[in-house]
Amino acid sequence: SADKQKHDYQSDVARLRKIVINSLYSHKDVFLRELVSNANDALEKLRLTALTEKEVLGGAENLNITIKAVKEEDGPGRIIITDTGIGMTPEELTKNLGTLAKSGTTEFLQKAETSADTAGAGNLIGAFGLGFYSSFLVADHVYVSSVAAKSLKNPEPTQYVFSSSADESSFEVYPDPRGNTLGRGTEITLVLKDDALEYLETLRLTDLINKHSSFSSSFPIYLFTQRLETVPVEEAEVVETLAAKPESDDEDEVVIEEAAEEKEKTAETKTVMIDEWVQMNAQAPIWTRDPKTVTDEEYEAFYSATWKDYEKPLAWHHFTGDSGSGVSFRAIIYIPSRLDESYWREGLEGSNKDLRLMVKRTFITNSLGEDSLPKWASWVKVVIDADDLPLNVSRETLQSNKFLKQLRSIIVRRLLQTLARIQDEDKDKFEELSKVYANVFRLGAVEDVKSRDKLATLVRFPTTQRNNTSLDEYLENKKQGQKQIFYLADMGKSESDLAKSVFVEKLHARGYEVLLLGQPLDEVFVQNLKKWKKVPFQDVAKAGLKFGDEELDPKEEKEQQKQLTEEYKPLMDWLRKESNEIVRDVVISNRLVTSSCAIVADAHGYTANIEKMMSANNN
Ligand code: ADP
Ligand code: MG
């Protein structure tokens, strides 16, 4: 008809559609999150406009998103996504869905097309959404019916259809032959490809919505479902009235059919098909709320629903921030009450599967790619929602990547702050935390140079004088003149065994505190740190021990040492001869109190511990 306007796609659009269809085939799930995201945007626009122009609501407040699958029995299988948002005029349908008006697109397209591996191009696009064109990943044909919100300029808007098939280079825009069925908003009908019929399954849809869109939209998302239920005959009428379309002013859409199978009928009951609109996101996304209004129970419920961990988290931190490149965000960081069993078995590449990066409440990715968190922090559970990061591909992707890069340091910094706060403010909680993460802190201090000092502060050690001593506490307790942090490291030994060591005796007798290091990562920890607050670590089983409270001045000590060496020369010679194969040298020592002799490691040699590990590996 004369009303039907045929338009050729802009050449860029044609190319984008091709890239989307060809390179993102394996990511076709994204269509739903993109369309829900658009619906959410349209509702947000409406809500914003209504603040100053009440008439856009047209008297109907209902702001929601509905998703319905129509099975093949009633024509081709299709999915219908409807929102009651701002809607589009026919001009807007043409402009918004048929052209790419935004800058940077051409550049992006070149990059995506010349990118050697299509997976790379896929990630490029997938990282920040592909918008409306992702519809064609699953649909042969897409119909968009839309009626713009009423305004002073447009008091009687007409419902129009945008119609396009996946393999055509043109689209049509025409008045909806059904008239104004929507009242306000947009209805997107995806006529599914044969290989996308899986999306008709309620379970598949539920899964997708739960994964990508629930907990995320501030507007209710309803999914149309049907189930069979056997009810007493007299109750069948009641069921009918319960199952009304949400917030709909229109006529009841409920259909009740008798089940096909006659034999299920008995005298008193019958099986009925119940149509229901089930709300997928009953809870408002908690990270968008003021932390003061969120209860501990809500934080815990969100945690378990999101990460499927039914043990309560140890702690969380809910904050807003600014990336520094102009991207503001809200986030919650959770500290689980345990580490995955596989944590210490897995390699050192920090991977993080438990991150939820959202943009405007739409899930985008759980991977920071190359900028993933360091191993020590990879267990953290994070939801982070950027407010003004473009969701679409048509803005500068580089800017987006910059934010991704910043995320790693933002998360690490906030996590360290949270850990430090618990240490300072809640002794009991910190003790719990230490039980789970003590070795994680050691690992971090070794692998993450930037965070080394902050993590080392969190590590606690048993000593000859007490338990759970931090390095700072150790230094506070040091004796006058003490210039070294004394430790004895022997992997796998208990504190009491370490304390019994002959090396520790003299120091302990003189009132020095000695760190007793029996944890696997202890030795590599002190070797990496070397010093704490400028005080060097000293292995008491190694040469180089200095006390600082020696009664003799160095000259006198040397003299005394010389005398003793002469006096005991015959014994020493004999010992050297006898132990020739076993030790490098025999010397007079002032480090022992009750034991008569000790074998010590060379100051620059391997310590006994590492020697043990090496010989174990050589066997
Ligand atoms: P983006 O959302 O990043 O702008 P899309 O390709 O997802 O890119 O959508 C293109 C444009 O189409 C949107 O900017 C919007 O103007 C319009 N649009 C898409 N879906 C809807 C909708 N459900 N209601 C109103 N406008 C929509
Ligand atoms: Mg979009």
Automatic annotation (TrEMBL):
<feature type="binding site">
    <location>
        <position position="102"/>
    </location>
    <ligand>
        <name>ATP</name>
    </ligand>
</feature>
<keyword id="KW-0067">ATP-binding</keyword>
<dbReference type="GO" id="GO:0016887">
    <property type="term" value="F:ATP hydrolysis activity"/>
</dbReference>
<feature type="binding site">
    <location>
        <position position="83"/>
    </location>
    <ligand>
        <name>ATP</name>
    </ligand>
</feature>
<feature type="binding site">
    <location>
        <begin position="103"/>
        <end position="104"/>
    </location>
    <ligand>
        <name>ATP</name>
    </ligand>
</feature>
<keyword id="KW-0732">Signal</keyword>
<keyword id="KW-0547">Nucleotide-binding</keyword>
<feature type="binding site">
    <location>
        <position position="395"/>
    </location>
    <ligand>
        <name>ATP</name>
    </ligand>
</feature>
<dbReference type="GO" id="GO:0005524">
    <property type="term" value="F:ATP binding"/>
</dbReference>
<keyword id="KW-0143">Chaperone</keyword>
<comment type="similarity">
    <text>Belongs to the heat shock protein 90 family.</text>
</comment>
<feature type="binding site">
    <location>
        <position position="186"/>
    </location>
    <ligand>
        <name>ATP</name>
    </ligand>
</feature>
<feature type="binding site">
    <location>
        <position position="38"/>
    </location>
    <ligand>
        <name>ATP</name>
    </ligand>
</feature>
<feature type="binding site">
    <location>
        <position position="88"/>
    </location>
    <ligand>
        <name>ATP</name>
    </ligand>
</feature>
<dbReference type="GO" id="GO:0140662">
    <property type="term" value="F:ATP-dependent protein folding chaperone"/>
</dbReference>
<protein>
    <recommendedName>
        <fullName>Histidine kinase/HSP90-like ATPase domain-containing protein</fullName>
    </recommendedName>
</protein>
<feature type="binding site">
    <location>
        <position position="96"/>
    </location>
    <ligand>
        <name>ATP</name>
    </ligand>
</feature>
<feature type="binding site">
    <location>
        <position position="34"/>
    </location>
    <ligand>
        <name>ATP</name>
    </ligand>
</feature>
<dbReference type="GO" id="GO:0051082">
    <property type="term" value="F:unfolded protein binding"/>
</dbReference>
